[in-house]
Amino acid sequence: MVMVSPDGAGDPAGLRGVRGALLAGGLGERMGPLTARCCKPLVPYAASCRLVDFSLANAVRSGLPELVLLSLHRETDLVRHLRRHWDDRPGTRLHFGPHDRLLRAGPAPGPGTVLPERPAERGTADALLANAEYLFAPGAADLLVQHADHVYDFDYRPMAAAHRARGAQATIGVQRVERRYVPLFGMVETDRDLRVRALVEKPEHPTSDLVFTAFCLLRIDALREVLADLTARGEDGWQHDISRDVLPEMIRQGRPVHAYPVEGYWADIGTVDRYRTEQLKLLERPHPIPPGALPRTLAGAGPRFAPERASLLGADVPAGAVVERSVLHPGCRIEAGARVLGSVVLPGAIVARGVTVRDTVVLADERVASDREGLPVSPPRPGHGPTPERR
After folding, report:
1. Are 318 and 302 in contact (CB under 8 A)?
2. Could you tell me the residue range of the domain that residue 357 belongs to?
3. What is each CA distance from 25 to 117, 200, 268, in whole angstroms?
4. Which terminus of the chain has fewer Cβ atoms in its 10 Å neighbourhood, N or C?
């Protein structure tokens, strides 16, 4: 059972008439060794859960009636995780796309099971087209697009209420960031009424400090019309992407596309460096996401914040070891005399006696026997078995 704290915020209509699309098909190549043995959505995070669990927790907390999984790589492992931890949530039904009927007919797939491959996709818009019969089925007027690698704590209901009140055909989440970071994201320009005038993916020379948080609400009828316009250009006439094609085309056509300011913490975990630094940001006081508000799917009793160490601990620290400003995942082991500084230590990892690790990620099942500073660049050798799950 996953712990999610409900609240009553939002429009009385809530997310009635909204269907979710969870984009979970990326390879995660920029995550390097972190995705050598698992798909990106299943990378452990914050000593408590996996990356995908933040979007699931937000969907459940907001009362999203149905969420359709759009995945490609190592899909069986992801499906097994979702069925174990999220498939019994009242009010939110998970739909597994072309595999839904097969999966509903029997138990969750066991180790060694491989689901049939889905069609290849060139971009996120292709994921929508490939799953059109599930996403655009009767019963929903709007589509909520989520990503499986974003870390945030959010209630979609007020956003949906604003979307409806404005008569928008698209409402996109936006947040202000330092101008130097804008080229990492989709840059957004709006008028004073927050109507979107431009969305430029990863601009070389930013003219705005407003970025797209990559979750959005789309009117299904408008989305289908724009997708039809784009596919009419031919296979090589567009980039097959929501941020690069679908939303800019809606703006170009003069359709009402509005921005919705996202307050509080939000992070797109795209690289090993961001994976480490964004977890360390959770240690700041006040916490961007309090430990008690983190989704819980990893094994163990849940992490605790140790103020004397400025660390998030899912594992014990023995006498004689030093842990400072770090995240220890459940199932890892820090030996006496070891020093862990500004680092993230994943499940099954061991930091040996007398070893210092600084500003790094110790990979799942890895044993570090000599001092290390800086990020890992290669996967570990097989060690102690799979990352533990919370049952």
Report:
1. no
2. 298-373
3. 12, 22, 15
4. C
Query: For residue 375, what is the DSSP state?
Result: -
Say if residue 194's pLDDT is above 50. Answer: yes
| Chain length of the chain | 391
CA–CA gap between residue 213 and residue 364 (Å, rounded): 29
Q: How far is CA 153 from CA 58, 69, 99, 164, 318, in A?
A: 6, 20, 29, 22, 33
Question: pLDDT tens across 296-331, in order?
Answer: 999 887 899 999 999 999 999 999 999 999 999 999
Token pair listed for 290? 């309090």
What gap in Å lies between CA 33 and CA 381, rounded to an integer? 11
**264 and 312 assigned to the same domain:** no
Residue that is last in its domain, among 248, 268, 288: 268
Spatial distance between the Cα atoms of 286 and 5, rounded to a whole number of angstroms: 19
Residue 234 CB neighbour total at 10 angstroms: 8
Alpha-carbon span 337 to 211, nearest angstrom: 44
Distance of CA 59 to the CA centre of its chain: 12
**Residue 103 pLDDT grade (very low, low, confident, very high; cuts 50, 70, 90):** confident
CA distance 173 to 79: 27
Instruction: Respond yes or no on whether the N-terminal peptide bond of residue 138 is cis (omega within 30° of 0).
Output: no
CA–CA distance, 373 with 391 (Å, rounded to integer): 35
Query: Domain check: are 264 and 333 in the same one?
Result: no
Give the tens place of pLDDT for each residue, 264-276: 999 999 899 999 9
- Residue 347 has which token pair? 């499940």
Tokens of 17: 């008439």
Do 172 and 41 belong to one domain? Answer: yes
Q: How far apart are CA 328 and CA 349, in angstroms?
A: 10
- The token duo for 205 is 């020379």
Nearest to 383 by CA among 362, 369, 361, 364: 364
